[in-house]
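Ticket 4471: requesting a sanity check on a complex prediction with heme C. Repro inputs:
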Amino acid sequence: MKKLVMVTAMVVVLLGIAVLVSACTGSQTPATPTVPAVTQEDVTKAIDAKFTTYDGKLPLWTIQPGTAPRMVELTIYFNNMWFGAQAGNWDLARFEAYRSEEASKAVYVTRAKRIDTLKPWAESALPALIKAIEAKDKAEFEKAYDTAIAGCNGCHAASSGGPLKSMAPFKITRPTAPLFSNIDYKGP
Ligand code: HEC
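Returned structure tokens:
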């Protein structure tokens, strides 16, 4: 019986404290802040934006190839393209021209500052090569090829890269030897 009285008294005291606390703080309880509703579409848009525009603070972006690795690719494609065309393997040459377009487009995404110089080259030199390749016209191909590599060198002279104020040291020429001994440039 004594125990019951004590428990009841404690409950009453605790209730009292609770009432007091709520009385003191009740008026100060901040209104629940109105959080703007975020829809799934908003989240998707925000994620897409992060994946669309280069952001050097994000490791996933910084590990993407910039200009130089794509340039090495272009060098490979231009070597293959030449020997494909020389062997009359126009399909091989056509593929390398396509890859050159793709490599250029990749630079626009990771190094937007190169668009102004790379795009005019890619959108004139490469279509001229493709036209000659599709026409299977060796003379036209060689003409377009020389124009294209003059464009490589023109752009190098006018561009800085890494520690260099000018990329002129990279002088591109017609190739004299295929890069790969395990490709039969004549095809099947
Ligand atoms: C935008 C104009 C531009 C055009 C057109 C261009 N380049 Fe480059 N190239 C550069 C720049 C800029 C660099 C330095 C890139 C860097 O610092 O990341 C470079 C670097 C290079 C390098 C050195 C890469 C390395 O990592 O060692 C090679 C090789 C190269 N280019 C080949 C070519 C070839 C081949 C072509 C034509 C088929 C070409 N480039 C067309 C601007 C250009």
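Notes from triage: The first helix runs from residue 2 to 26. Leaving this open until the requester confirms.
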